[in-house]
Write a structure and sequence with these properties.
This is Integrase core domain protein. By secondary structure, the chain is α/β, with parallel strands linked by helices. The chain is built from 5 helices and 6 strands.
């Protein structure tokens, strides 16, 4: 079956996280924020004030009837969206999705047959730990440091400015795993 990766990236430090789902809905988008993103940033003392997403139906809808929009409203998070049909507007997420596909999914699918989503998520979490804490980045603010080191170095500034922006996106080419790669998902 298909596996979708709900992704977030801190736009300054490039700290990233991803959670796997078997569908792509407003509920899963809100779940990622509720389960992983907001608790982590709260533990760091940094409030999330604004999130940028694409215009997918999992992110956009009538605020009164759309789980993701309602969740953001309740949490007091401003929601901005990319320009229609302009993936370059969310280039940071697009680039991370490509890196995750090349460095994690392509390799993982050749090495192992996954029988459940939790097993695949566990391996993805190990890769994300490496990505955030060991893999140097040459990006605008990282200058050869890891995303986590960049985050730690900039934490005081982030708290002072109180202006964090996260990019939230689905992997653009969702992994369609063959039946012999994933069973019983």
């Amino acid at each position: 079956g298909k596996v979708y990766s709900q992704v977030f990236i801190d736009s300054y430090s490039r700290v990233a996280d991803a959670k796997l789902y078997t569908d792509k809905t407003a509920i899963t988008a809100a779940d990622m924020l509720n389960d992983r993103v907001l608790p982590w940033y709260e533990s760091q003392g940094i409030p999330i004030l604004r999130i940028l997403t694409d215009r997918g139906s999992e992110y956009k809808g009538n605020i009164e009837h759309h789980a993701f929009e309602l969740f953001l409203s309740i949490e007091g998070i401003e929601h901005t969206t990319t320009k229609a049909y302009s993936p370059q507007t969310n280039g940071m997420c697009e680039r991370f999705n490509k890196t995750m596909k090349q460095e994690f999914f392509d390799t993982a699918m050749r090495k192992k047959i996954y029988t459940d989503l939790d097993d695949l998520q566990l391996d993805l979490d190990i890769w994300l730990e490496h990505f955030n804490n060991e893999r140097p980045h040459s990006g605008k603010y990282c200058y050869g440091k890891t995303p986590m080191q960049t985050f730690k170095d900039s934490k005081k500034l982030a708290v002072e400015k109180n202006n964090e922006i996260l990019y939230l996106d689905y992997i653009s080419d969702s992994q369609n795993l063959t039946d012999n790669q994933v069973q019983n998902l």
